[in-house]
Amino acid sequence: MAGLAESGSNPDVDLLYDINGLAKDAPAWFDRGMEYVGEYGLLLAMVLLVVGCWWSVRRRGGEDAASSVAALVWAPLAAGVAVLVNVPIRGFVERPRPFLTHEGLDVLVSGKTDYSFVSDHATITMAMGVGLFVANRKFGLFGLGLALLEGFCRIYMGVHYPTDVVGGFALGTAVALLLSPVAMALLTPVVKAVERSPRAGWLVRARGRSYEGQDALIPGARHEAAGTEERDLAA
User: Fold this and answer.
1) Which residue, among 174, 162, 160, has the nearest Cα to 97 in the 3D structure?
2) What pTM value is reported for the model?
């Protein structure tokens, strides 16, 4: 399997040269920015997106708050599981990095000595993006967009073939979706228990939020206020 995509006549390598060729024509400062974004920036952005979605869910409240938070917890866990699944896949395929096999690539990140298939970065971002989409459609669309951009960056940087990225997308999606029912069955009761906790409940629902997502009132306060208003009108 090590000879996968080693021929320069196949579409995988052709597309690699086309996308990586953009780096040769770009200014040095842009390449440095792409290096940071592709290596660290998009992963950080994905984490911040999950945190932002969690903040939105807990502030909104509602009866589905616990299940939504459980889905958000599954998103990074799915990424971790997918990376673990990728370990034996890489060892089986043993595909060298493209710059070790093909000349003329503009490699923006040095020191990559592990195997190329499949891309960990593509796997992680797509698993988190799909997990986020399951929890919240709006945030999930942004997450999927970040995952696609991550895949493009890995090819642009010259460290992965296009099929490495596609394989990472497929692996991340499969893990996030196929294991989601089991994960939700295990995580939702735990999150509901946290929600009922007087000390940790804020992790699931903002303090002062009722199950309908409205500002919670002290029991009886609504009725007392109504009664007072009626008495005032009667007077």
Assistant:
1) 160
2) 0.81
Q: What is the pLDDT of residues 151-163, one digit of tens each?
A: 999 999 999 999 9
Are the C-beta atoms of 159 and 112 separated by less than 8 Å?
A: yes
CA distance 135 to 71: 5
- Amino acid letter for position 157: M
How confident is the model over 140-154, as pLDDT tens digits?
A: 999 999 999 999 999
Cβ neighbours of residue 109 under 8 Å, at least 6 residues apart?
A: 35, 38, 39, 157, 158, 159
Closest CA to 62 of 136, 159, 151: 136
Rounded to an integer, what distance in angstroms lies between the CA atom of residue 168 and that of residue 83?
Answer: 9
Q: Exposed/middle/buried for 63, CB within 10 Å: 0-12, 13-18, 19+?
A: exposed
Interior CA angle at 124 toward 8 and 83, to 5°?
A: 85
- Give the pLDDT band (50/70/90) at residue 36: very high
How many angstroms separate the CA atoms of 86 and 162, rounded? 17
pLDDT at 107: 87
Query: CB within 8 A of 136, min separation 6: which ones?
Result: 53, 56, 57, 68, 72
- Cβ atoms of 169 and 150 within 8 Å: the answer is no
